[in-house]
Amino acid sequence: MTRDPGRERPRPNSHEPNPREDWGASGLRLCYDGTLALDDVSVTAAPGQVTAVVGGDGAGKTSLLRCLAGAVRPDAGLVRSPGALRTGYLPASSGIYPDLTVAENLAFRATAYGMTGQAAANRGAYLMERAGLSAATDRLAGQLSGGMRQKLGVIAALVHQPELLILDEPSTGVDPVSRSDLWWLIASAAADGAAVILSTTYIDDAERAGSVLVLDSGRELAAGTPEEIVAALPGSVLASAERPDEVVSRRAWRRGVGWRIWCPPGVGPAAEFSGPAGNGISARPAAPVVPDLHDAVTVAALARELERPAELAAAALAAAPGPVPRPASGMPLAEVVGVTRRFGQFTAVNQVSIRVRPGEIVGLLGANGAGKTTLIRMLLGLIPATEGRVLLFGEPPSRQTRRRIGYVPQGLGLYDDLTAMENMEFATAVFGGQLGDLPADVAGRPATLVGRLPLGLQRRTAFAQALAHRPDLLILDEPTSGVDPLGRARLWQTIAEAARGGAGALVSTHYMEEAGECDRLIVMADGEVVAAGTAAEIIGGAQVTVVAADNWASAFGRLERAGLPASLAGRTLRVLHASPAEVGAALLDRGAEAGVGSYRIYAAPATLEERFFELARRSDRDEVPA
Q1: Which residue in 295, 293, 318, 292 sits closest to 305, CA to CA?
Q2: What's the pLDDT band for 184 if we cut at 50, 70, 90?
Q3: Per-residue pLDDT at 113
């Protein structure tokens, strides 16, 4: 494995008197045209640590990071940074020039930071190799897939070995394989001593961080280590297989195939579930669970919503509409049998067979280029199959069968220059039938063009539009990308309610947490189905080796030198494809500069994302857009 040339020379500006100073901000306040974006927000980014800023669209994440990067001056508060030349910044747009090649983008960024040609070339080549982009050096950046662009953006921000690395939603919409590469780049920067701060809507990203700040509407909801945030959760959390009634549902959210219910202090299980006379679930009582970071962040958002005026809280927390009963039928709603699709000499989908039955949610997982979008386009009848059969409701796709489908594409399928109601009216004219209802929080902005709505409200509008004609089959392509955890739970509640009424759903997603919402999963790689079943069945007995070390950065470096790449999870490391004995031998590297200190090595069950990564990595082909 190629050594990082940056590790063979002193870090830039290491002659400064205090090279390991904490960076961050205190008491930031920022307004845009009278709208409060940040309200007394503070954050610390410590060297050698990853700090995650969590929140949905409009939470204030980007505003905070832009203040830290010096792109925006706050109205009040203090920003502590090492200066522009010692800061690496990835904006939400990836900061890459689409009409330059990959090599030209890196050379331009290195020149801007004052790096010499050979040093920049060596450093860039090493990072490109580790991120799997070496074969794309001469390609135009505009021709890269989304995951490849994000990796290039992070490399460009890292090429000069900054002391402060700022990443704005680096993993949003990125497939798990590319996310793994991104997190190696992030962990490598932290192990090299940089202070890393990133924003995200994904809780599993936050669980990898050493410190977390949760924002909502520009205000702090929670802050601390993941363990501290969970410990500070007020009250208790219950789990139930049944949907709670209308009163309790204001404090409940869908999690996996069941429900979580928050019991504030003073409201315990006995009060919630005291039988038919209580205001909870009587058929199948809920049970207390040990909360995790996902639960803690959701509870913080729920508590904030319940502080709003009653009518606004009711609109935000209203349960999804009840299901529309459909006649029982054993016939699959969607079926592909031995389907292959070729584009010239390239085979995008190869001998794939899947079924979606009434009342079930099927998750479609795969990296960019796996063939998911091509498969969906064949199901919709937008492109024909080269071989095999594609059936919708027992017949080939047609204009008539498409009338029974509710489709939410990645781009949402909304017209930005129309209002939400105008979009609904257009959809009604296309599908026929009665005009559907908009969510209350969207209907409250009747004159706002869709393009000016927050992303979460845009997605709620797209869901309402897709469901308005009471479809028998939902086809959803990355439906919750970029949505905050509570908003994501509400959208999944809508999907589950449709399935409870007998509709089927085929959902493509990059977010492994959402796989738990599905009845079955189908994993695709290189156009083929490589695994199918429940999450537990797909994981099987797969295990990883976990390292808990006093000096995780030194352990990370030693594993890297031994050719055992590790992923960062808080301050522990997880290693695929290596036994505890192999990992232990690598940690005894006598040639390393720094000691690992005391450490513990043990085997643990793999996560679904780790198992997915293992399956998807079976291919050595370069990733291409799906």
Answers
A1: 318
A2: confident
A3: 84
CATH 3.40.50.300 placement within the chain: 5-225, 334-532
334-532 under CATH 3.40.50.300, yes or no: yes
404-416 tens-digit pLDDT: 888 888 778 888 8
Longest dimension (CA), the chain: 76
Global pTM exceeds 0.85: no
Distances (CA, A) of 29 to 82, 308, 454: 21, 22, 21
CATH of region 5-225, choose from 3.40.50.150, 3.40.50.300, 3.40.50.11540, 2.60.40.1840? 3.40.50.300
- pLDDT, averaged across the chain: 81
The predicted structure's pLDDT at residue 64:
95
CA distances from 527 to 158, 340, 346, 352, 370 (A): 33, 9, 10, 8, 5
356 forms bridges with which residues in the sheet? Answer: 334
pLDDT computed for residue 610 by the predictor:
85
Q: In terms of Cα–Cα distance, which of 500, 539, 534, 538 is closest to 520?
A: 534
Per-residue pLDDT for 139 more than 50?
A: yes
At 42, the amino acid letter reads: S
- How far apart (Å, rounded) are the C-alpha atoms in residues 181 and 134? 13
* Neighbour tally for 461: CB within 10 Å: 23
Pick the CATH number of 543-605 from 2.60.40, 3.40.50, 3.30.70, 3.30.420: 3.30.70
Structure tokens at 526: 């290189």
Supply the pLDDT for residue 404.
Answer: 87
Give tens-digit pLDDT for 579-591. 899 988 888 865 5
**DSSP labels for 511-522?**
-HHHHTT-SEEE
Token readout for 486 is 């509570």
